[in-house]
Amino acid sequence: MAGEIVQFASNGHLVEGYLARSASGTGPGVIVLQEWWGLVGHIKSVVDRFAAAGFTALAPDLYEGESTSDPDEAGKLMMALNMEATEKTLRGAVDRLLNDEGCSSSKAGIVGFCMGGQLALFAACANSKIGACVDYYGVHPSAKPDFASLKAPVLGFFAEHDAFVNREVVAKLDAELTAHGVEHEFHTFAGTQHAFFNDDRPQVYDAAAAETAWEKMTEFFRGRLGA
Predict the structure, then answer these.
(1) 8 phi and psi angles, rounded to 5 deg
(2) pTM attached to this predicted model
(3) Please, are residues 23 and 49 in contact by the beta-carbon 8 Å criterion?
């Protein structure tokens, strides 16, 4: 791991996050949001990968120290999130990132996976300091983005075979963003399953789709946040 654990203020106390600075010294800032498992090694490796690619990235610990590999427990942790408090945590993380010496952009990018994908949309709607949003197959029933307030462009990645975010869900999101005049671009990868980006889960990981999505995402962030 190339990064470090940092702290930032939120909800009247300190929250931790995993931060990795650009290998070149400074780079555009990106917030990375966890799946329902928590701030696990895979998410930290994504932060490190962003740093290696010239970004400065921060993954806030939304579960504040808790994580799991059990789906039932993960579901409980996800549903226990208080959306008002979570939005404040995300706001604090954005401020911490933008004020970091390694961040060169005036606005932050944000990307999330599964639960984090929906929270990325939620945060981008609530915070004008977010200048670009990437959603990987986002789902969280309690996170309801206010698309009327969304100014940031959205890049979405979805799986063909996804029991959580099926084609009807993707079509509805597409229609909502279109109705609100939000610039967006969606990609659905044939033959893939939910969480295809997670290389710690070989049963669903798809290396080709994950690499294509990574290339499209980093190009999107560079274009929107500045190289």
Answers:
(1) -150, 155
(2) 0.97
(3) no
What are the C-alpha distances in Å from 143 to residues 78, 106, 195?
11, 26, 19
Tokens of 127: 């915070």
CB 48 within 8 A of CB 22: no
Helix (H, G, I), strand (E, B) or coil at 66: coil
3-state SS class at 189: strand
From first to last of its 227 residues, the chain has per-residue pLDDT tens of 479 999 999 888 999 999 999 989 999 999 999 999 999 999 999 999 999 999 999 999 999 999 999 999 999 999 999 999 999 999 999 999 999 999 999 999 999 999 999 999 999 999 999 999 999 999 998 999 999 999 999 999 999 999 999 999 999 999 999 999 999 999 999 999 999 999 999 999 999 999 999 999 999 999 999 86
Question: Cα separation of 60 and 3, whole Å?
Answer: 13
Q: Please give the domain boundaries of the chain with CATH numbers for all domains.
A: 4-225 (3.40.50.1820)
R_g of the chain computed on alpha carbons: 16
Q: Dig out the tokens for 15 from the structure.
A: 């929250």
Dihedrals phi, psi of 54, to nearest 5 degrees? 100, 10
* Token reading at 102: 């390694």
For the stretch 13-17, contacts whose Cβ atoms lie closer than 8 Å and that sit 24 or more positions apart, written own/partner, are 15/60, 15/61, 15/64, 15/89, 15/92, 15/93, 16/60, 16/61, 16/64, 16/65, 17/58, 17/59, 17/60, 17/61, 17/93, 17/96
Active site residues: 114, 162, 194
